[in-house]
Amino acid sequence: MKTTINFLILIVTILNCQISNCQTSKKVLSKQKDYSFLTDSLNINPQLEKYKLAGFSLVVFENYEIVYSNQFGVKSIDSKEKIDKNTAFSTASISKPITALLCFMLEEKGLLNLDAPIDGYLKRWHLPKSKFTENNSPTWRQFLNHTAGTTQGGFADYYEGDTIPTIKQSLLGQIPRYDKEIEFTFTPGTSWEYSGGGYVIVQMALEDTFNKPIGELAATYIFSPLGLKNTTMIQPNEKGFPTNVALVHDENEKVIRTGLPITPQVGASGMWSTPTDLAKFAIEMQNALRNKNNKVISHNVAKKVTEVTALKNAVGGWSYGWQKSFGYNNYDWFVCNGSNTGVGGSIFATMTDGNGFTFLTNGEKKNRFPVMGQTQKKILTVMDWNKETSKEDTQEIPLSLKEKLIGTYDDFLYQQKMETKIIEKNNRLYVESALLEHFKGRNDNELVYLKNGLFKIIDYPNLLKLDFNDGKLSAVTLIRDDMTSKIELIKEK
């Protein structure tokens, strides 16, 4: 009996060793996967020449690890010095999710109350009086998810030699783009309007509360702990600004003035970074969302800053600094796009499985948009990030219902000034949208009928409740978690 037991123990031990070796082998194989095919697939260098784009820097990450990094072109068309992985770019609005994250981290430490009215934290300036805020003083959260109702969408850059305004002057409208004080256009919390000015108010409140520049706070709580050595909110006219940077270029591929934009509205659009640092930041967020291997951002904070909190008029859905408007390959994504004069880029990251990409480029919109768009679409295609979904909850669309749906409508997906079509192909219904085509590279977005009577468009994040009047589709209600937004439709002939 003892011999039999020893024999069984030996067999189990051998099996465990084999399993362990197999798992180790799989890990080695995974790490040895060659991603160099992306260079040929993306074909970026010819695009730089075609579209007169100075430079492009790209990072792809998969399974919570950076797997591909490449840089193309030059920092400045004048010097021809090549971009490298440590070359920082102005990130424009990618600053916003950093500012939002900083606020949530400070709240977690008990240093802020984001549900409190922000005006109580302001010292240099106070919110202007408005009929919209008499009985509803806006909170930090409402500024962070663009539901406070403030104006001032974005800001012009400044350069060395210019008179650089203070953020108080910016809010007072004493700057070229705005000639009047920031104001409210609706009752806080009742709608959504993108507002860089709202983030300037957040910046002022942070600096007034902690008596430190927002850049110093971000470095202390985010950049330094994450090891983001090439990320800063220091501006080109300040001590400590990095020297390895990409200069901004106009549509004729010429350096704009000094090439170094100065942005006093730091919390809204003043951060400089690299795609590598942005990828490290995104991966930390992803690890925090799964509550594993996160070092700086807590699971609780990651969930809060990426949850959808604005749906009505919010271009498909918005959280705190992050756009939650698109679905790709059956994944839920948190996304941020940055766009300033002569520079732009994006972060795309999945909420699960640790996949995504970041890129930054130093050219104007007409030069960079084609390259950015093609790169994004190609990565989403060739990386084969396809999350499996169950079809158990779907049902066939009755013929009578199909006939009611087919037609052309005002845009009900993103509430933009364009049309959205429902068409039939091969006995199935598809939604055609110029925005979906732009971001996804295709227009075959199937409309699926769920057993609970709701509809879903493949890779669109909101569920749809459809209402009919006299046999025609008259309204679409977008549903996301516990939020709804009803859009009245006009069917065109």
Q: What is the multimeric organization of the chains shown?
A: single chain
Distance between the termini: 86 Å
Report the sheet with the most strands, covering strand number, pairing sense and barrel closure. 10 strands, antiparallel
- What's the helical proportion of residues? 25-40%
Number of strands: 18
Low-confidence parts: 1-30
What is the typical, i.e. mean, pLDDT? 92
Describe this structure in words.
- With 493 residues, the protein is an alpha+beta fold.
- The chain contains 14 helices and 18 strands.
- It has helices at residues 2-31, 37-42, 44-51, 95-108, 140-144, 167-171, 196-210, 214-226, 266-269, 275-290, 299-306, 365-382, 399-405, 434-440; strands spanning 55-62, 65-73, 89-90, 272-273, 327-328, 331-340, 343-350, 356-361, 394-395, 407-410, 419-425, 428-433, 445-450, 455-457, 463-469, 472-480, 483-488, 491-492.
- The strands form three sheets. Strands 9, 10, 11, 12, 13, 14, 15, 16, 17 and 18 form a ten-stranded antiparallel beta sheet that branches.
- The longest helix is centred in the first third of the chain and has 30 residues, at 2-31.
- The radius of gyration is 25 Å and the shape is globular.
- The termini are far apart.
- The relative contact order is 0.12.
- Mean pLDDT is 92; it is low at 1-30.
